[in-house]
Prior knowledge:
By secondary structure, this protein is of the alpha/beta class. It has two domains: 8-59 and 169-339, 3-Layer(aba) Sandwich (Rossmann fold); 62-167, Rossmann fold (3-Layer(aba) Sandwich), CATH 3.40.50. The chain has helices at residues 8-15, 34-40, 62-75, 90-102, 121-128, 142-157, 167-191, 206-218, 236-250, 278-291, 300-312, 331-335, and strands spanning 30-32, 45-50, 80-86, 105-111, 132-136, 162-164, 198-202, 224-227, 263-265, 321-326. The chain has a six-stranded mixed sheet, sandwiched between helices. The chain is globular. The relative contact order is 0.17. The mean pLDDT is 96. Keywords: Pyridoxal phosphate. Pfam families: PALP (PF00291). This is Putative pyridoxal phosphate-dependent deaminase. The active site is at residue 89.
Amino acid sequence: MSDRVLSPRDVHTAAARLPRVRLAHLPTPLEEAPRLAAAIGGGVRVFIKRDDCTGLLLGGNKARHNEFLLGDAVDRGCDMLVWGAGVQSNNCRQTAAGCAKLGLECRLYLSRMNYKTEPQGNLLLDYLVGAHVEFTDAAIGPELDELLAAKAEEFRAAGRKPYFWHRPRVVPLAAVSYALCVAEIAEQLKENGLTPDALYVSSSGGTGAGVALGKKLLGLTCPARLICPMGWPWHIPTATAADANSAAEMLGLLHRLTAVEIDADESYIAPGYGLPSAAGREALRLCATTEAILLDPVYTAKALAAVIADVRAERYRPGAVLIFIHTGGVPAVFAEPEKVLPETGQ
């Protein structure tokens, strides 16, 4: 185990050992949001890391992920991806886009869950970039993972070379990309003479593992608040620490995390994954009307709701610098407008 503090350059150098394809517009801006901060109150400063501006079919965190995941697929000689999540999956939308750019066939198995299956939002974009889509009632998590593994085996038996959602490999690889994102944030803050008092991101998977790892590698002492958009049938802090440690191994680094170092907050999931919350709606409205920045109701709105709640609970001193990592998801806004409009529909 190592406690050696790395520089952002060190983190980039470590990541250079891994196969990678360039897909994202990086670095993304770190944009101060003064009107949003004033609306929240508490005298804090809010900066938004604009990962909704990564490109790759309307932006989001999966553009960073896919630089390493699709890099891994190409390095292994794969000719197709077998992927899956919910009908309005940002993950699948950006994965399908990456496949289109690289000439890989993309097979998506999308769980119906709480979504309609009309071609709107992310699903419409899946079709437009040429993904082959099948719907399933398999629940996101182990059940869908098993389906994807079985489908990949069918393609393999038919002579294809599939790359599929194999959680023990793809989640740590995705985490590498967000350790790099934290290094990017550290560089941008240093340029402005700032030190972070907290990092916030919507994640209960690879993005959060990467943020936690980046914090560890760079020796940041501020909390990294992982606001979970969904629960899993496992202990999220334990799994997140394990994924961060696997990512560190991939990077050839000795740094390790334990579950107690993971601040994973599941209290904002209600009323359920894919369903909007009142606090999330307020956060979405505030961000849109003060900064003209759109959030989505499933992920980023609930994460910003946590920022608002923490500030109003006086968790931070006036002048504190809070970093909100905007992981994208905007296409979902257009799929089901009733989830983002006020209760009155106005």
